[in-house]
Amino acid sequence: MTSTEESSKQTNSRHEILKKVKEFSREEFPKKAFVAGETPVLVSGRVFDEEDIATLVDSALDGWFTSGRFTTEFEKQLARFVGVRSSLLVNSGSSANLLALSSLTSPKLGERQLKPGDEVITAAMGFPTTINPTLQQGLTPVLVDIEIGTYNVDVEELRAAITPRTKAIMMAHTLGNPFNLDAVTALCQKHNLWLIEDSCDALGATWGDQLVGSFGDLATLSFYPAHHITTGEGGAVLIKTAAMRPIVESFRDWGRDCYCAPGEENTCHKRFEWQLGDLPFGYDHKYIYSHIGFNLKATDMQAALGVSQLAKAPQFIATRRKNFEYLYKRLENVEQLIMPRWLTKANPSWFGFPLTIEPSSGIDREELLRHLDERKIGTRLMFAGNVLKQPAYVNAGMRATGPLTNSDIALKHSFWVGVFPGLNETMLDYLAETIINFVSK
Q: Which of 310, 333, 367 is the last residue of a domain?
């Protein structure tokens, strides 16, 4: 058998395998009818089809389990989708945050290198991994209060928080709702600050005509099953300039100076001609380390799923917005609830539907959440609430800019429910009616 015949046979075999995989997927994961009170109304979850499963298996059949052809394709497509220079796939959104912030400590950045004691401003209310990298790098998080409704930082407090020690702003677009990018980017330009957009919950959100994640020097995404698209576990760092990519890539890949892809060598064409640090001339470039880095890489199977999911992203984002609008109309006249709001230039890509119980209403949030839980309706709190109240952060060396009044209100009275594409109007009606019936009593 010739090599051409062998290749054709392998192609046909792969085609038959993937055909069977699609058939299996349709049988194994059928759509089920909704039964109120029995079928869970989840806050989030993976949404996938037979094409996703087949692409995942297609990658596995390559027998190449680290980053490969799908990783290259996914990183290119993702960067093009968001509108940035490049992207790097990592093993989680939390790792993406760690990688983005850590990259700014590189000595290669000269005077702009972040050093221990420098301040990084962030929101007092949010997910911990937006704050943790700052602490882990010996920097000082400066916490700014939020606004109830948008659940993003109060811009006036942000402006007042800047000191000569401030070197960066790292904040999330809360639940897919863009923070004021005009004000924040203007402050960064005025004070020469780095901006990291935590866009983990916000794929597809826009400010004006531009997608979030494309404003900051760096930005991050999460592809955990709860998010807009999924790779299982996974995340990405979005990179605005060509100069930053090798730094971010180095921190991701053990801190090494070499940028060869897995399975490749001598991409620079002078593998044994480098002189760096106190190493002898000609020391193998594949084992020269310029940063104290990590191993945060993902697998090609994760990337394969990402390629398939990214093709569905516009549809997923549109459905999230549609579900949000439907739920908003159902709940907007409930006086005991403070409805979500967003800024004029923002077009959110909603991760969830945030609600705050009017503090003067006398409604106990925990009673409401138990009531919903008993009826199979999922809820989540506003992440860590005021992070200073969390046990891990009581004496963590952070600085607050004020009393964090609204962060405390979110801590005690706010929660969110789902709008992800796995929900339909029947489910949203059941969710809304359950909330309305409880608060009306």
A: 310
3-state secondary structure the chain: CCHHHHHHHHHHHHHHHHHHHHHHHHHHCCCCCCCCCCCCECCCCCCCCHHHHHHHHHHHHHCCCCCCHHHHHHHHHHHHHHCCCEEEEECCHHHHHHHHHHHCCCHHHHHHCCCCCCEEEEECECCHHHCHHHHHCCCEEEEECECCCCCCECHHHHHHHCCCCEEEEEEECHHHCCCCHHHHHHHHHHHCCEEEEECCCCCCCEECCEECCCCCCEEEEECCCCCCCCCCCCEEEEECCCCCHHHHHHHHECCECCCCCCCCCCCCCCCCCCCCCCCCCCCCHHHCECCCCCECCCCHHHHHHHHHHHCCHHHHHHHHHHHHHHHHHHHCCCCCEECCCCCCCEECCCCCEEEEECHHHCCCHHHHHHHHHHCCECCECCCCCEHHHCHHHCCCCCEECCCCHHHHHHHHHEEEECCCCCCCHHHHHHHHHHHHHHHHC
Residue 272 lies in a domain: yes
Q: Is 291 a catalytic residue?
A: no
Q: At 2, is the pLDDT very low, low, confident or very high (cuts 50, 70, 90)?
A: low
Indicate the number of domains in the chain: 2
Q: Kindly state whether residues 303 and 212 are assigned to the same domain.
A: yes
pTM value is: 0.95
Which residue among 227, 228, 285, 413 is the active-site one? 227
| pLDDT at residue 319 is higher than 90 | yes
pLDDT value at 262 more than 90: no
Structural domain boundaries enclosing 354 = 313-440
